[in-house]
């Protein structure tokens, strides 16, 4: 059996080990927030926003951001049907109603025309999730948000380092959130961050993140409101500081892996990969191949072929409206492309440090599958 090819894994160097060792050795008492504050400042500066609050997850960051906007029962929040559940769960936690819309055929991100159709008097926010490193059409979404008085939120967990006309993903909308889960471009094990240029939102999230204790509250054990407990630890932040120092290297490495896939797979008219439109940079968190309908290659075939070669390739996200907990909340199957594309797509392994020989092995699986499907069709044509 060939050695296993993982789909993602973190890139850890001596720097990460040194910072974490320092945090666990000295980062207590007076020093217990040092790495957290450093990570918040440096991350905000990397994205180009004024404020950041480090959190225990992206889900928590999104939960607090939505709460800070005052979103609750009776409100509707629009997002793409194609998403990981983390992008919608906080909407439900707050008692608001998620409204799922279809995706665009090339970026696989939410379709602004579908968003506009979904806006009602109850709509409060749009969550733009930059899928697999690809960017949402932020200009059109911002125009809609402004026209209808809605908040625009970026879930940029998969697009750290992506750029939209000179602006870093996550720093464009009212607020942005990121994940530092072990599968993401930069990791703290588990963790996330909230970023914004809006001072009011920042203060609100900062308070919420610390059990409702306002900054400057001198009375001990005195929460000013009911909050949450979504803080990042100093030890995690130390790991984050080291990763952030290497962010340009990490993003370049991801882009190089993607460029290699693009080069090798360019000869396959049967599939398309992540787009990178004029004026944007795709940080290539997750190289993804979508096969044409004509190729007749299916998700199930792809999964079988990759697992037979000991390669961990992952399925494209299922439509959220197809999941049991959302069955009654939306008209299932309305988002036609969300339901269609996931049946003929696959995520390709892309960790920093993947070898060219491993990328070749991944591409060979695809070449063989295309060749087999072609000969099957010829057999059918011959009546065999
Ligand atoms: C990974 C991911 C999340 C969840 O992040 P956690 O840190 O696990 O909460 C949210 N949104 C998107 C788009 C993600 O890819």
UniProtKB/TrEMBL annotation:
The keyword Transferase applies. It holds the Pfam family DegT_DnrJ_EryC1. The keyword DNA repair does not apply. GO terms for molecular function: transaminase activity. InterPro entries: DegT/StrS_aminotransferase, PyrdxlP-dep_Trfase, PyrdxlP-dep_Trfase_major, PyrdxlP-dep_Trfase_small. It comes from the Bacteria. Keywords: Aminotransferase, Pyridoxal phosphate, Transferase. Belongs to the DegT/DnrJ/EryC1 family. This is Glutamine--scyllo-inositol aminotransferase. It comes from Alishewanella longhuensis.
């Amino acid at each position: 059996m060939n050695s296993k090819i993982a789909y993602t894994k973190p890139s850890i160097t001596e720097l990460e080990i040194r910072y974490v060792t320092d945090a666990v050795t000295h980062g207590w008492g007076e020093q217990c927030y040092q790495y957290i504050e450093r990570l918040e400042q440096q991350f905000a500066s990397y994205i180009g926003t004024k404020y950041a609050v480090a959190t225990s997850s992206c889900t928590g960051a999104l939960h607090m951001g939505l709460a800070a906007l005052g979103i609750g029962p009776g409100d509707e929040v629009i997002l793409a049907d194609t998403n990981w559940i983390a992008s919608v769960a906080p909407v439900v936690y707050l008692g608001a109603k998620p409204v799922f819309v279809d995706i665009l055929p090339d970026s696989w991100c939410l379709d602004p025309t579908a968003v506009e159709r979904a806006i009602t008097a109850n709509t409060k926010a749009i969550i733009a999730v930059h899928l697999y490193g690809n960017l949402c059409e932020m200009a059109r979404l911002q125009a809609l948000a402004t026209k209808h008085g809605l908040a625009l939120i970026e879930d940029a967990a998969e697009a750290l380092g992506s750029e939209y006309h000179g602006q870093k993903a996550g720093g464009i909308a009212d607020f942005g959130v990121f994940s530092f889960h072990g599968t993401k471009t930069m990791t703290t094990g588990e963790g996330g961050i909230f970023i914004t240029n809006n001072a009011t939102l920042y203060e609100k999230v900062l308070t919420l993140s610390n059990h409702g204790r306002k900054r400057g509250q001198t009375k001990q054990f005195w929460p000013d409101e009911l909050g949450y407990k979504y803080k990042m630890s100093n030890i995690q932040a130390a790991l984050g500081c080291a990763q952030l120092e290497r962010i340009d290297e990490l993003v370049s490495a991801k882009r190089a892996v993607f460029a290699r896939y693009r080069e090798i797979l360019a000869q396959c008219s049967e599939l398309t990969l992540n787009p990178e439109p004029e004026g944007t940079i795709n940080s290539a968190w997750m190289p993804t191949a979508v096969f044409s309908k004509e190729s007749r290659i299916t998700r199930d075939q792809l999964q079988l072929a990759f697992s037979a070669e000991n390669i961990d390739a992952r399925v494209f996200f299922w439509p959220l409206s197809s999941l049991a907990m959302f069955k009654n909340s939306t008209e299932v199957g309305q988002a036609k492309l969300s339901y269609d594309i996931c049946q003929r797509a696959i995520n390709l392994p892309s960790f920093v440090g993947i070898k060219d020989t491993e990328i070749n092995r991944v591409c060979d699986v695809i070449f063989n599958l295309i060749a087999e499907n072609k000969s099957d069709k010829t057999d059918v044509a011959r009546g065999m």
